[in-house]
Structures are given as C-alpha cells and as structure tokens.
Design a protein that fits this description.
The complex is a heterodimer of chains A (360) and B (569). Chain A is of the alpha+beta class and 360 residues long. Chain A has eight helices and 20 strands. Chain A has two domains: 231 residues, 3-Layer(aba) Sandwich (Rossmann fold), CATH 3.40.50.300; 114 residues, OB fold (Dihydrolipoamide Acetyltransferase, E2P) (Beta Barrel). In chain A, helix 2 runs parallel beside helix 4 and helix 4 runs parallel beside helix 5. Helix content of chain B is 76%, strand content 2%. The chains are: A alpha+beta (360), B mainly alpha (569).
Chain lengths: 360, 569
C-alpha cells in the first residue's frame, strides 16, 4: 500500500441541471471551493437534493462540471473519463458484478490493468484479509450478507490503490446495527491504509463518527466546513444548527456585546442573560438563542417560565415540550431516574447553562 | 447560466472512446442505409416523375378500383382481427391469472398455445385451415360432406390471423393483469360489488390502455401480414398482396411504391400512437407490482364456461398445427388417407435440400448479427448519453412498423440500380447479403426491445463501477453488460433465427433463383395446390424452429445468468 496519497481540489465548481418538466436551468452545485488534504477523511453531508452526490460524481468523472476545475493531486482532471481517473468508488448499491465470485470481483480492476496472475492473486488475498473476508473468495456475491457485500465493494476499490477513495452513501442499505459496525470498519481501514477518502451521506451521526472534516451542503452550496466538533458546537448558520442534532431557536434581542465580540448580553422573553456569540452578531441585529434539547432541563425555579405540553418517557431520557409564550421548546432530560418528572400542564422553568448556548 | 462547459467536457470524454464512437457511427450508417433510405426512395418514387414533383402517381393509384378495394379490405380485416384477438387474448389471460385451472393438462395446453405462434411459420395455420375446411377439407368434406365449402376470403384470413395473433395479446395482457394489485379488487368486493361489477369498474378500466395497446399491435401485424392473405385470401386482396401483385404481375413499381407509402403511413401512424401514447398510459396506470398473491376465482359459474371456451380454442389451435405433419404423410388429402413418405421424397428429390441449406445458412448467419446488434443498440440507448441516441432508438423501433412487403419494394427501388440510381452498392442486390440484411432489419426491433427491457432492470451503478475501475466502454460491454443480459441475448439469437427462417413477405420480393427459400417453396407449392409437398416443407420447418427454441431453453436453463443470480431468492 505504499502509494502516494492524493489531495482533491475543487475550484469554483458548479453544475447546472435542467428541470425536465419546466425546462428551467438551476444550479445543482454552486461555486464549490474545497481543498481536501491528502490522507484525510472528508464527508459531504446534507439533505437529499443538496448536491453532495453530484459533487462526488463529478470528482469520479461520471458528471462534468459546468464551471470550474477539479484537481486530483496536482492534476486537472476535468477532461478525464472515470476509467482514467485515480479514484475508486464504493457505491450505495455495492454494484458488485453478480456474475463473478468474490475473488473475480476484487480482481476485476487488476485484470484490466493486465497485471501478472501471481501479483493479482497476492493483492486480492491481502486486501480480503484487510476487510476480514479471507476464505470467501469463491462465494458468489448473492450468497453474501449486506455487510459482507459492502466489505467486498470496499476491497474492490482499495485493491486498486487509488489516490482517492469515494463513498456514495455506502451504508444506507444496511440495518441500523450493522451500519454502526461498518462505519467503524471503514474508518479503521481508511486509517490503516492512510488513503484520502471522500464520503457522501445524509446521516449526521455517520458523518460525525468517521470524519476528519465535514462539509455541510444545502441547495447546492457549502454551508460550513469544519471538524465534527466545530460544526456541532459552532454552527455557522441556522440551517447547520438545525440539521446537525436538534435545536430550539428562541427569538432574542442583542443588547450589547463585549469588546472581543465573543459574548453577548441578550434579552429573551424579557429576561436578560449573557451567552456565547461565536458568529459575531452585532447589537440590534436579528438573532435567535439556540438551545440544544440535551443542554436544558426543567426545574421549579429559573428564568424562562412555561407550561409542560408534552412529557414522554423515552428510556434513556424524558422528552418534554415546554410552552413559553407562543413558543414550544423541546428538551431531552437524560438520566431522569433521580429527578422529578414533570407532567403535562404543570408549570416549569427552562434551566440551562448559559455557557452551553449561543446566539445565531 | 449555461451548461456549455459540461457539454464540451462530455463531448471530449465521449470522443476519447474511439471504439464506442466508431460503433455508433457504423450503427447510424447501417440504419440510414437499410431502413430510412429505402423508405425514402419509396416516397421519392411516388411523388417524383420525370424529374419534377407531382401527385400524378398517387392520383393514378387512388383511382384504381383494385387499390380502393384493397385499402377497404385491409382496414376491415385489421379491425376485425384486432378486436377479436384482443378479446380472446384477454379471456385467456383472465382465465390464467384469475381462475383456478383445475388440471395440469390445461396449464400445459395454455403454455403450448402461447409458444406455438412464436416458433411456427406465418402461413402454417392457413395451410391447415384449407386442409380442415377447404373444398377437400377433413371436416367439411369427409365429416360433414359439404362439397362446395369456401374458406377463402375474409373469413378465412380473419380466422387464421386471429388464431395467429391472439397468443401475443394473451402474453401481453397476462403481464398487465399480474400487475393489478389484488387488494383493489378485494376492496371493491368488500364494498359490495359483484364479480362482474368488479371486472367492469376496476379490472377493465385499468386494462383499457393495455387493451388499446394490444389492439393496435395486432392491427399493425394484421395489416402487414402478407403470407396468410396470399394463401387463403382468394379474391380478397389486401394492401400487402396488392402491392406484391402490382410488382410481380403488373410490373408497375412506381404504382407499388405509392401504395407502399399509403400502407406505410397507416402502420407508422398506428405505431406512433401505440408507442408514444398508449404504452406510456399503460405504464402509468399499472406500474406497481402486485403486493401479494391473488385468491383465484373458484366460482363454478365463472370457471366452467371460461375454461371450456378457452380449452376449445386451445385444442383447436393445437389441432391445426398437428394437421401439418399429417398433411405431409397422407397420400392424397381429402381422398386417400393412407400414410406415405412420398411427399417428403418428392421434396428431397426436387429443390428441398437446397432450399433448407439456403434458408438455414442465411438465417444462421443473420441471427448472431441481429442479436449482437440489438444488444449493442440497447446498451447504447439505456446506458449511454450522446446525441443521435434518440435517432438510433427510434429508427430501430420504427422497423417494427414497416411491413415486410413495403421494405421489399423499398429495397428493390433503392438497390436494384444502386444508391439513388448511381450504381453504388448495386452489387449487393440479388445476393445473399441483401437477404441477410433484410433478416437483420426485420428482427432488430424485437431483439432491441427485449434487450432494452433486460438492461433497464440492471442497476446502472454496476456498469459505472466497472467503468470506475478502469474499463472502457467496450470492456464494460463485453465483461459486464453482455454476461448480465446473456438470456436476452440468447433468446434474441433464437428469435431472430426463427423469424428469419420463417420470413416471407420481404424475401419473396428480393429472392433470386440463386437462392431457394423454404418459405417461398411452401408458398409456391400451396399455390399450385400441392398441399402434401407444402406440408412436408412446413413440417421440417417447424421441426427446425422448434428444436432451435428447445435448445435455447435448455441452454438458458443450464447456463443462463438469471439462474446464478436467482439462486439467492
């Protein structure tokens, strides 16, 4: 596996589609600029139709960008067909060749490269060991479970030692438990091989758990680029805050900010508090106080008073909705064993650590 | 905003694949030369005379009584056959899907009825019709003692065509009925509808576009049919036979060209309605898969009459096929029913061997070409994006709407004196090559259609993955696509072989004394009244086609892709 890892660069990449019904053109991807470091694991995350798969397919070469240039390593690849690019893709449907067995599936690309038989054999066996599929060489693909098929698909891509590995929602056909196992596996193998990986998913927990960097996309545009922590704790926009995890948005008025513009004094429902202000909102601009459900609790005394409108036991937490004025705030009270459980129509106050919330 | 960069890049990527580019170029040239050009020549012939555009030829043709009668006859026949075949096909399909058949024998019989017309030459039913109900027919003369029975004419053609085409309707409608979700019918039953009301308010309306579809397909087939009207039509001439006689009898090829244009317009318009309107409607109303099995109807009042009717029809059809070998083995049909091999001996002594050799060789050569060509077209149409794709798909499907007679006249007008009468390519006229080309063109649509539907079921990412791993288009096609649609390829191979060896309409116009075709021999012998010899030829022909199909089924069963892939489920 001693091969050069390659970075990927997108320079002002746009893709235009035409709506088949209205014949109107629209941007499926708009002005993407991205530098992916060699050896890193980057995830494109967003709701369906946000352009993440289109971006990935442009990198693979299945689609051509309408504006901009794509680089793999230092090479401009716009004009190369997929078979000429140093990428290998793992498909959502695995796309294993159903008329070949496991060995031949993995060997397919190597045979196209006309490698000697012994070399092919050695490489295939080694890679199958890496994905823990040794001994299954002669199985037909339809005799494999979903997880095993995924491992073969991964092996088939890895064995070509591509500069960049591409994943198109590879786990969405698996059941929930297997998804968790497989994403850990993918991360383990990627780290072991040290390959650059670009991963597309709409599942935020998947993205959080495996990525070095996450790119949040919406309506063809990049909303935010950052590590999982940055994105979760410092979302750059309301869209990101809402899309990653759950969030309540409570209208707030910014009264003043500190000199570094890192905290702000705000008023919410007439109450004054000091909160984080990482997006540097200025006084009197429109703002919302963002509270994640797990960062708040209910208590008898506190600043924001309301009436409980829903109280549901969820196992590991008690789920509440609290009506404050005409707003409904949702919160998850984890480990509720030793705390009071509020019932519907009870009065309660929203209790949260001002350091854990922020304005947007 | 514009998409010019991606278009430029796509073009660049496209042209970096020389094998694909040249394949497409060859395909387009082939379709232009052998489908569009001959048809264009017909049009030119019928509107240009002495170097200027005129409607004189049309005027002349339209004023011919013979033409007008033929036109009316063709329409009457088409309607009659279209409606009756669709109705019988629907009954069969309904019985198969909805009614519990109580015997394995009946199921087998249905099966036979649905495959027979696929493997049999087009005029076999006419032959046996004459032998059963003709002047010296077994039933009319020997059993009922009617000595002046006249089976020739409209009723003869109609019966024969209905029996030939209804199995196709049956197969098409069966597929549609199976897609109706049984819970729709159960829900209406539950709301208090009787079975008849359920049929009239749910099943029938859902089937309506599909029925229209089968009606038009049959109509086109009936109108284009040449062999049956030729053999059993008597004085009832249709457009196809009139065109043939206009060339071979009246030596008026411009007149024939004009008539061909009329016939062609008729079939093409119907084809366009069928393909672009009804097929979409059918797909829109019946797109889903039935969620689960249907409770078969066990009600005796439904089951008994339907089963009896279908059984009678099925037995009758089977009987007609059985007649053929007997016709070849009886000493003198209608008089002397002692068994003999003399007709076979006569056949072998005259031109039999040569006819089988020629027919077999030409079909044997054209079958793999057709099969491969149609798979390549399907691959390009389903999996590739390029300009001219619509053209390739449309023209190869259009061939379905071109009656054989029309194509034959087109080839005569287009190639007898070379391309545009310049002498270029004139050499192929009258050779085996042009017959092979005709066979290919005639079978291309069926092969392409089956290839397209097979390919649509294959996840596109399977090919993309091969492409991504470094295969070029040709490598993807040979290592992934073709193996995955092996079944479709094999059946295309055999279907095209069978269609070619049983073809007559275009061939009879183009064949030269150098080549003897079985079908032309049958036609000739039947015209002379030598039914024994005709039957001998037909018997051997059926044996050949039936073994071809049997071999195909065997191969698919043991080496087919679907078996490997299906194993899991």
């Amino acid at each position: 596996m001693e091969k050069e890892k390659k970075g990927v660069g997108l320079k002002h990449i746009s893709k235009i589609y035409t709506d088949p019904k209205t014949k109107k053109q629209f941007y499926a991807v708009k002005d993407m600029n991205l530098d992916i470091a060699p050896g890193s694991f980057v995830t494109l995350l967003g709701p369906s139709g946000c352009g993440k798969t289109t971006t990935l397919r442009m990198i693979a070469g299945f689609e051509s960008p309408d504006e901009g240039q794509i680089y793999i390593g230092s090479e401009a690849v716009n004009e190369l067909t997929p078979n000429k690019r140093d990428t290998a893709m793992v498909f959502q449907s695995y796309a294993l060749l159903p008329h070949y067995n496991v060995f031949d599936n993995v060997a397919y690309g190597l045979k196209l490269r006309k490698l000697p038989k012994e070399v092919i054999h050695e490489k295939v066996i080694n890679i199958l060991k890496l994905v823990e599929m040794e001994g299954m060489e002669s199985r037909m693909t339809n005799q494999l479970s979903g997880g095993q098929q995924q491992r073969v698909a991964l092996a088939r891509a890895l064995v070509l030692e591509p500069g960049v590995l591409l994943f198109d929602e590879p786990l969405s056909n698996l059941d929930a438990k297997l998804r968790v196992t497989m994403r850990t596996e993918i991360r383990r193998i990627q780290q072991k091989v040290g390959i650059t990986a670009i991963y597309v998913t709409h599942d935020q927990s998947e993205a959080m758990s495996i990525s070095d960097q996450i790119i949040i996309m919406s309506k063809g545009k990049m909303e935010q680029v950052g590590t999982p922590r940055e994105i979760y704790y410092h979302p750059a926009s309301r869209f990101v805050a809402d899309f990653i995890g759950e969030a309540n948005f409570i209208p707030a008025e910014v009264e003043s900010v500190d000199e570094e513009n890192e905290t702000a004094d705000i008023s919410v429902f007439g109450e004054k508090i000091t909160v984080r202000n990482h997006n540097r909102i200025k006084p009197h601009e429109e703002a919302s106080l963002v509270i994640r459900p797990e960062n708040a609790k209910l208590s008898d005394k506190g600043i924001l008073k309301g009436v409980v409108s829903l109280s549901t036991f969820m196992g590991s937490y008690q789920y509440y909705r609290l009506k404050i004025g005409d707003m409904e705030v949702q919160l998850s009270d984890y480990n509720p064993v030793n705390r009071k459980v509020y019932e519907v129509n009870e009065e309660a106050c929203l209790d949260f650590d001002p350091k854990a919330v922020y304005i947007l | 905003m514009n998409g010019s960069q991606s278009q430029r890049l796509e073009r660049q990527k496209f042209f970096s694949d020389p094998i694909m580019v040249s394949t497409i170029a060859v395909l387009i040239v082939f379709l232009l030369l052998f489908i569009l050009y001959p048809l264009l020549m017909l049009l030119i012939d019928s509107v240009v005379s002495d170097g200027r555009v005129t409607l004189d030829v049309f005027r002349r043709v339209l004023s011919m009584d013979r033409f007008r009668t033929a036109f009316r006859n063709t329409l009457v026949l088409g309607f009659l056959v279209g409606i009756a075949s669709t109705a019988i096909g629907l009954l069969f399909a309904y019985v198969e899907v909805y009614v519990k058949l109580r015997s394995v024998f009946l199921e087998k019989l249905f099966n036979v009825v649905s495959t027979l017309p696929v493997v049999s030459p087009p005029f076999v039913l006419s032959l046996s019709m004459i032998m059963l109900f003709g002047r010296s027919g077994i039933i009319t003369r020997s059993i009922l003692h009617i000595y002046d029975s006249d089976i020739y004419g409209l009723k003869g053609i109609a019966i024969v065509q209905i029996l030939t085409f209804f199995p196709v309707c049956y197969m098409m409608l069966k597929g549609l009925l199976k897609n109706i979700d049984p819970s729709l019918e159960e829900a209406t039953r539950d709301m208090g509808a009787t079975r008849w009301q359920v049929f009239m308010t749910v099943t029938f309306p859902l089937m309506l576009p599909g029925l229209g579809n089968t009606f038009l397909v049959t109509f086109i087939e009936s109108v284009a049919d040449f062999a049956n009207p030729m053999m059993i039509g008597g004085s009832y001439d249709t457009l196809a036979t009139t065109i043939y006689l206009q060339v071979t009898g009246a030596f008026d090829s411009t007149g024939a060209a004009a008539m061909s244009v009329v016939l062609l317009s008729l079939t093409v318009v119907l084809f366009l309605i069928q393909k672009y309107y009804l097929e979409k409607r059918t797909a829109a109303t019946l797109s889903g898969k039935a969620s689960r099995g249907r409770m078969p109807i066990e009600d005796r009042s439904v089951r008994v009459p339907l089963t009896i009717f279908c059984s009678i029809v099925a037995v009758f059809v089977t009987l007609m096929y059985i007649m053929v070998p007997f016709g070849a083995m009886f000493k003198l049909w209608g008089r002397d029913y002692s068994l003999t091999l003399k007709w076979f001996q006569y056949m072998m002594k005259t031109s039999g061997l040569e006819a089988f050799q020629d027919s077999f060789m030409l079909s044997f050569v054209s079958a793999p070409i057709t099969a491969l060509l149609s798979m390549i077209i399907s691959y390009l149409v389903v999996k590739k994006k390029f300009r001219g794709k619509g053209f390739i798909e449309f023209v190869s499907m259009l061939a379905m709407a071109v009656p054989g007679t029309v194509l034959g006249i087109g080839y005569i007008r287009g190639y007898a004196n070379g391309l545009f009468r310049t002498g270029i390519l004139q050499q192929i006229y009258g050779t085996g090559l042009i017959l092979v080309i005709v066979f290919v063109v005639r079978s291309l649509p069926t092969g392409t259609r089956s290839g397209i539907s097979a390919l649509r079921q294959i996840d596109k990412s399977i090919e993309e993955s091969a492409y991504d791993m470094g295969a070029n288009s040709a490598e993807v096609f040979t290592s992934v696509t073709l193996p995955l649609i092996k079944d479709s390829f094999l059946s295309g191979l055999v279907t095209s072989f069978v269609r070619s060896i049983t073809a007559i309409s275009a061939v009879i116009l183009l064949v030269t004394p150098d080549f003897l075709m079985i079908t032309c021999q049958i036609n000739e012998q039947a015209e002379k009244g030598n039914y024994g010899v005709a039957c001998a030829y037909a018997t051997v022909l059926i044996l050949i086609t039936y073994s071809a199909v049997a071999i195909m089924n065997l191969v698919i069963k043991h080496f087919g892709t679907s078996r490997e892939i299906r194993e899991e489920s």
